[in-house]
């Protein structure tokens, strides 16, 4: 899921830069691509996922064209922020991968 969001944000930046947008939306696209790069690496995944969610919500309400892409990316960003980085990430190598085992209920 991290790879899909990271690649989608990077390609969105490339396509938006080719159309030469005004500076405001271009800054949002660069921030989103930076968060996408962090997601690709698995570094600061909860922070990057939350940043993707905020940027996608901002883009949804500020742009009048096709909001569904931004809604989809915002939903995936929120899911990544809540799920965490996963086993194959820089965060897992730096801080260890957390696993919660729920034992049997004893009466």
Please, could you describe this protein's structure?
This protein is mainly α. It has one domain (2-90). 71% of the residues lie in helices and 0% in strands. It contains 5 helices and no strands. The protein has helices spanning 2-18, 23-41, 45-62, 68-83, 90-95. Helix 1 packs antiparallel against helix 4 (68-83), helix 2 (23-41) packs antiparallel against helix 3 (45-62) and helix 3 packs antiparallel against helix 4. The longest helix is centred in the first third of the chain and has 19 residues, at 23-41. It is elongated and about 60 Å long. The termini are far apart. The model has no long low-confidence stretch (mean pLDDT 83).
Layout: helices, strands, pairs:
Layout: H1 2-18, H2 23-41, H3 45-62, H4 68-83, H5 90-95
Helix pairs in contact: 1-2, 1-4, 2-3, 3-4
Output the radius of gyration: 16 Å
Terminal CA distance reads 39 Å
- The low-confidence parts are none
The residue fraction in helices comes out at over 70%
The helix tally amounts to 5
The outline comes out as elongated
Major sheet characteristics: none
Quick structural overview:
The protein has 107 residues and is mostly helical. The protein has one domain.
Which key terms come to mind for this protein?
71% helix
